[in-house]
Specification:
The chain is about 25% helix and about 40% strand. Helix 1 crosses helix 2. It is an alpha+beta fold and about 240 residues long. The chain has a five-stranded mixed β-barrel. It starts with a strand and ends in a 6-residue tail after the last strand. Strand 7 and strand 8 form a beta hairpin. About 35% of the residues are buried.
């Protein structure tokens, strides 16, 4: 994506969730744990072992993060010190940013949701496709069947906002929902702002930090794109009108 943004509390999951997002790459709690483990163990292999992950997957994830956030882990091969890894200044700064955001998440009592009424059209494993007033949307379900009337619930923290003609989904391998709309308003908070986006007859809500709101420079009536993961969307029984 173009502008980096930050996500806040995860109401859909019923617990706090923080994520820093830049160039389509999300940095969340699992990534923060990986960097902390590298710092503690002094090596990627040691960090992976401590977290119960494979070294190859840990390295791959670090490379993915570094493609968006810059060099996070400095590696030293062999030598008198025996090699190893340590966090770069950028890595420590990223952890600091994440921890500050996490503190905001923990202090937030409630996160608004966008709720869409709809009908299940297909089920593929844990994912269900639902026809809603804004078109077909995918999300996680517990026990949905084709033809069921359901609610699709989308936490404001899960929605990422893009300006203008920015590419909506740079990660084609992820199951994501994408729509275009216009900014209805921005409710500014001291640390977190709520952006309201009109898509057809539905108003979506997205939580972003005040810093990101200023960087995006969103104004009422401006065309934007929004994206949210299917895995951050709940499909539940007993549909009601969309809010």
């Amino acid at each position: 994506m173009g502008e980096p943004t930050e996500s806040g509390p995860d109401a859909a999951a019923g617990r706090g969730r923080a994520a820093l997002i830049e160039d389509g790459v999300e940095f969340d709690g699992r990534d923060a744990a990986l960097l902390r483990a590298v710092d503690a163990a002094g090596s990627v292999a040691g960090a992976a072992s401590a977290l119960g992950r494979s070294r190859a997957r840990a390295l791959s994830r670090i490379e993915s993060m570094e493609s968006a956030f810059g060099t996070l882990v400095e590696r030293q091969r062999g030598g008198t010190g025996g090699g190893g890894s340590r966090l770069s200044t950028a890595g420590r700064d990223l952890l600091d940013r994440y921890e500050r955001l996490q503190a905001v998440v923990a202090a937030t009592a409630q996160v608004p949701e966008t709720v869409l009424g709809g009908t299940v059209t297909s089920v593929d494993g844990e994912l269900a496709a639902v026809d809603t007033p804004v078109g077909r949307v995918r999300g996680l379900h517990d026990d949905a069947a084709v033809g069921d009337a359901v609610q699709v619930r989308i936490g404001a923290d899960a929605v990422t906002v893009y300006k203008g003609d920015e590419k909506v989904d740079p990660d084609a391998t992820s199951a994501r929902n994408r729509r275009r709309g216009r900014v209805v308003g921005v409710d500014a908070g001291e640390t977190v702002s709520t952006v309201r986006i009109g898509v057809d007859s539905v108003t979506f809500r997205a939580l972003i930090t005040a810093e990101s709101a200023a960087r995006l420079g969103l104004s009422e009536g401006e065309e934007v794109a929004i994206r949210w993961k299917a895995t951050a969307t709940r499909v539940v029984a007993h549909a009601t009108d969309s809010n």
